[in-house]
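S.,

Sequence below, as promised.
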Amino acid sequence: MTGAAEDDDYEAGPPSQRLAQIGEIVAARLTAAQGVQTIPVDGIEMFVRPDFLTVEECARLIAMIDTDSQPSSLFSEGADNSFRTSHSCNLDRWDEEVEAIDIRVCELMGIDPSHGETLQGQRYRMGQEFKPHHDFFHINQSYWADMEATGGQRSWTAMIYLNMPEAGGATDFPMAGISVNPRSGLLLAWNNMGPNGAPNLRTLHAGAPVIAGTKYIVTKWFRERPWI
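The prediction came back faster than expected:
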């Protein structure tokens, strides 16, 4: 995650025919998929799939996150320590259970698995949060050269809630005026690009502070080209 909020100092990126085409293909796939619901959000393509994971699958992923998580990092330069206070870890993509879930996410999205980053698990304890940021890369930042060389821009995000904290922990999209509350097994997907394939500033989102309990999620980001 970039950790870059909407700011005139950040250059998001130009239109892209490739990313526009990816957006059209994935949106059509999700619209037609059984069990997937379109969320009517102004200016963002967003979908949910309830009960994408079983209670047992969620429990196994939570255990993996608790075993391997470390303080979450940011791409962004100069971000303060309070910007992202969760713990996270890249899940073992060669673990049979993780691989099976990863493949299911790719199949649902209709994106070749080679374009997907490793599933990342995240844990938010009481008071922890991720302040407003974009998942796409800002091309005027120092990290962009490496990201461009290893698969390019992030196209879609797929996030799965593994549990429901006692209070708080919603995913807020402040520019779109919508919040999604955690629900065990629920997959939330959105296109980080606009219709012309340029990064969509309206996808600004935040992991709201957990008020009580602990929140667990896994996130998968997809690139415009194969991720290497």
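Residues 3-10 have pLDDT under 50 and may be disordered.

Coffee later?
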